Amino acid sequence: MKGLGRRVTIGFLSIVALLFASGVISLFELSNLSNDTEIILSASRRNMELAKDMLKSAHEHSQAVLHVAIFDEYAQKDVCRRVMSDLDGKIATARSEAVDATRLDSLQLSASNLREITEQFIFTEQPAEVQLQTIGVAEPIEDGELVALRGKLWYDEHYKPAYEVLVDQVQNFMTHTHSSLAPRAEQLNKNAYRSVAPVFISLVVMIAIVLMFYYFIRIYCVRPVERINSSLSNYLSYRLPFSVKGDLLDELKELAEGIERLIGLSKLNRQ
Amino acid sequence: MRVSIILRYIGTVMLCVSAFMMVSAGISYMNNVDSGFYPLLLSSLLTLTLGAFPLLFVPRAKSISNKEGFTIVVGSWVLASVVGMFPYLIWGGEFSLINAWFESVSGYTATGATILNDIQYLPQGLLFYRTSSNWLGGVGVVMFALVILPSLGTSRMSLSNVELSSLAKDNYRYRTQIIVRILLIVYVGLTIATTLALKLAGLRWFDALNHAMSACATAGFSTKNASIAFYDNVAVELILAGAMLISSLHFGLIYATFIRKGNNVFRSEVVRTYLSIIAIATLLVATSIFGANIYTDIWEALRHSFFQVVSLITTTGFATADTNLWTPFAIVVLIFVSVVCACAGSTSGGMKVDRLLIFCKILMAKIRRQQHPNAIIRIRVDGVVQDAEMLNGVVVFIVTYIGLIFFATFTNTLFGQDLMTAFSSAVACIGNVGPGFGEVGSMGNFADIPVILKLQNSILMLMGRLEIFGFIQLIFLKWWR
Fold first, then answer.
1. Which of A49, A137, A259, B351 makes the best surface tag, with the fewest CB within 10 Å?
2. Residue ranges with strand state E in A143-209
3. Shortest Cα distance from B140 to chain A (angstroms)?
């Protein structure tokens, strides 16, 4: 392959190669975009699950504590311990997976605080009178009522505030997770633009190249062929001398020279 | 006019731009394939294809006409700015379509004005590309292309007619082929020397190279948000001031000085005037800011005033201080030097000291002619008599230049800018200076100005780079015979 043929082939191949390159880069960016989306979605989903489990554990703990403190069901002691241990496990998991683990410090602290309060009240074996004195009830009352009153007072004044703090902290953890993912989502938005931009710009460049290609083929291929054709027609119709105006390139130059030689030979044959 | 020939030569310029994009992509690759790699790589490939395509079809021209040469120069600058947008657009971030155009034009016209709020957020490859656009623009995209243009003879001179100011061309007194060589020797040599000096002063290689390229192009793109103030280093400031000063002198004269020719920097009347303006402006600004207690130490006042005066008069735009906080008198002096600018035949833009000197001589001649109506008064610069056409051209240029500043100020205020921002941004853009005052001050940027004004300012930058009439001719190309 030589001359015009080579030029046209290289021209087309370069267009194809460029489209391919822009396509590959766009695919690469789209793949990154897809991965980032997946990461953000799964992180968000996982955090929601963890927060839900934490709230469930806190609720279970609260229920078990109520049973122990008010109804004196000491069998629920183990449930309290197990649920608290579950909550610790969930916080540890969240800490290991969190983007910003420092935010979980306050959640950990409130869970520890709740555990301490519960341990101090339920698992410390003290006479009911002493416990009542510590919470400010000095007058003697019946045994059953004593237990219920002791439990209710303790629950309202000590456990409930600590429980509410814990629930608030879990909710903070949920909202913070979303706010910490916001910059990543913003980055994702920019990446989405980046995956489209290469194709769009490549298309604009391709249009420019195709227009140039059209112009060059018109100037360097079509018009010379038209000029050769016109000159040949003039020769055949009116016996005007065959001459092509302007510069010709490669195969077209050879074609014009070939026609000139052919005309020369036919003149010689006629003579 | 042969469009295909024009496309061929513009294509050569595109190849230069593509090469620099590829180098920047290489830097991105070395920097752990940072986010600038793919945008730069794809942009380089696109520009390469765009540039190589005409070369594939169009044969070399034996000669090109002035009209074609002119169109090649203007077209090269505009198209370099267009393809220069690609890496920014593909990368995204703060670069919208108009922001990318503004940044690209600012780069290739060696203006150094930016729309970026956070420059340091950019990946290293893109930072280098930004500075390389300054460097390419500094020497002149077309001058660069001339080195690799295979054709000889008349085509070279036609291409350099527009880019070099007519004054500079007269002063060169060399053939175009040699001019190109002189430009490159001085330019590359100065960039290497400045890089090494900045490295010795404590900058990282990357920062040293970027700031050296920007200083030698008298452009002003920095890799830091706070520009040169980030380093707070006297040695760095002195090195950069030196590089800016040398780059703002006539390159032919610098070369002549090195090879010990008679017509050199020390003997040039223009250079003497230029250095005098710098000295007087520095003293005035230093006295003003010291007197207003902005700096309590006179040396600090001198240090900052010298750097700012040099930075603005050379049309670079680096900053070591927030000049918005300086006294109104100091600001007026700085605006004056931003209008006057440096010597013709350098990488600087603006009105040029040469024209100011000739204008002053015309005024003096006018006064003398009134006193002695029959006297024959010739105006000379460096002993060379200036012809009437040249003198007329200088006056027309100055009037048009100032007229455009006022027109741009008018438009800027129309879109809600305060007078200081409106006027100084017009001066900064048409003079290819970069920063102005007010919202677009030395520590500010052009991010928050309206889109229409970004477009207007980018056109002003192109006009300034092409010596106004080079750009205006584009409109009247059809009637050019």
1. A49
2. none
3. 24
